[in-house]
Amino acid sequence: MKLEYDSKYFMNKAIEEAQLALSKGEVPIGAVVVIENQIIARAHNLTETLNDVTAHAEILAITAAENYLGGKFLNGCSMYVTLEPCQMCAGALYWSRISNLFYAAKDLKRGFTIMGSTLHPKTKVNSGVLENESKELLEKFFIARRNLN
Amino acid sequence: MKLEYDSKYFMNKAIEEAQLALSKGEVPIGAVVVIENQIIARAHNLTETLNDVTAHAEILAITAAENYLGGKFLNGCSMYVTLEPCQMCAGALYWSRISNLFYAAKDLKRGFTIMGSTLHPKTKVNSGVLENESKELLEKFFIARRNLN
Q1: Does A29 contact B at CB distance below 8 Å?
Q2: What is the pLDDT of residue A4?
Q3: Bridge partners, residue A32, by sequence
Q4: Rounded CA gap, B35 and A89, in Å?
Q5: For B95, which residue in chain A has the nearest alpha carbon?
Q6: Nearest CB to A66: which of B51, B70, B116?
Q7: ipTM of this predicted complex?
Q8: Is pTM beyond 0.90 here?
Q9: Which member of A10, A59, A73, A129 has the lowest number of beta carbons within 10 Å of its beta carbon?
Q10: Integer angstrom CA distances of residue B11 from A66, B7, B55, B132
């Protein structure tokens, strides 16, 4: 029996990463990078843990994927990320020339679309896969944080 | 005698970093981060060495500065960088809330201005310090690379 790998399968793996971030008190965002149905990088937001604004899930996943491949381009790869990338991460994806970007929930405040950043013309974009699951995690985080203040 | 530290002094330090990049066969771009007249981070482009599109001088300098400060915000800090940041680096600077950005040469093709990215509203921007010195280094690199092909 051949296992079915689809965008939902891989986005679920990104959600698992977001859950790991949540368990560390980080804004729950996760990402995986896939090539030929194989996950070659997985990462979650670590900005608080590392005291580093550049430690977004996407940046860490790009670095790990390029390290795995031994090259600095991600053509042929797909990124699955639980929230629409910010302009920093869109800029990193631009340089990586990644083939596909799937994101779950839109970020209407700081997403690259509203901020006006540009992806590489070769990058195909899809959104909405497991959108609700991603949103639920984010809401959980922000409700918990509000109650602490 | 009190030493005079001015934007030229610090941009020269960024140029020194760019020269280090050049000596490694990297596109010669360097950056330093300064707080209260003290350099707390210096970095140069390492994208080829590390096989990592995210290893721009600015990203490495931000990570190092935040690590030094033990916090993820760079308010009160100035970055001196030899080329106008790209949208990835502008996005990282946005998150860092850095107070001042000085860049030497404009990047009319991939700079954040032409790409439409947004810096933090609290970040003041200056350009043109040691512009010619920065351009000369970049031209040196691209002429050498052209002759290799």
Answers
A1: no
A2: 62
A3: A42, A80
A4: 26
A5: A53
A6: B51
A7: 0.94
A8: yes
A9: A73
A10: 31, 6, 20, 12
